[in-house]
Structure formats: C-alpha cells, structure tokens
Amino acid sequence: MRFWTWALEAYGRPGAAEACLHLQDRHGQCIPYLLWAAWAAREGRTLDRAALGAGTELSARWEASAIAPLRAARRAMKTPVDGVADAAREALRAEVKALELQAEQLLIETLEALATEPGASPLPLGPALLDAAAAWPAEAPQTALDRLAQTLS
Asked: Least packed by Cβ within 10 Å: which of 6, 20, 25, 32?
C-alpha cells in the first residue's frame, strides 16, 4: 500500500490524531516521519540507521522550511482579528490548511522513496517507532510512542 494512502487511513483511526498531535505539540516530533516508520514496519520494510538518518535529515529540513511555517500561520488564523471578516479569515485558513497538507504529502511521498522493498511479513510497530524517535533530534517518551503504536495496530 502506498504510504500516503496508509497515512490517511491510519490518522483517521480512533485516537490516532490525538496521539500524533500529542507527540508533535508536546514532544517536537515530526508526524509524517513517525508514520513513515510505522508504515515501513507494517509493510515489512526495514529502516536501517542510514535510512533513518536520511529520513530524519529530510524531514527536519522540510518540517522547518515548509510544514511548520504553514502550521503556525494556520493556527494563528484561528483567532478572530478585529476588522477581518470571520468568513474570509476561515476561508484563507482553509487554504493554508490545504497547503500544509500538500507539504506533508510531498514529505510522505519523498520518505516513501527512501524505504526498502516490502518484506514477507510485518515488523513490530513499537520498536520501529522507538528507533525512529531515537534518530529524531527531540526526545519522545516511550509511553507516547506506545500509545501511537496501539492506535495504529
């Protein structure tokens, strides 16, 4: 299954969005990167140290240059501004949200290309998420990663 298709399905599972946002907002994790590790494990794809390093570098650069600025702009537009019509503000906010999603999709498609070929059987999600989080610059508690793994199982 393509990573983008899997990511949309996985994010829609009960509790997944909350687990992802917790890791993103409280622990500085890049959700497309973590989902990449989970998707790879589900597909039986091994992400070795070199692949995780390349994924970390790519994700950190793209997160900083594209995704995070769009997310910040979208979140800032959540608050009404005197003199700006609410409907117009919400319409612009929706456009920025769509751009943020496109930026995440581009990262996801690029990460997919870094993964190995699918294996014969799935790999455990927990260790895959722990390995990915260990390669990421910000620390993530194992309990939060376990919570994500449970929602994706």
From this structure: 25
> Nearest-5° angle of CA 150, CA 62, CA 132?
35
pLDDT in tens, the chain (153 residues): 899 999 999 999 999 999 999 999 999 999 999 999 999 999 999 999 999 999 999 999 999 999 999 999 999 999 888 888 999 999 999 999 999 999 999 999 999 999 989 998 999 999 999 999 999 999 999 999 999 999 998
What's the whole-model pTM score?
A: 0.93
Contact criterion met (CB below 8 Å) for 47 and 37: yes
SS3 71: helix
Q: How far is 90 from 150, CA to CA, in rounded Å? A: 34
Break the chain into its structural domains and give their ranges: 3-152
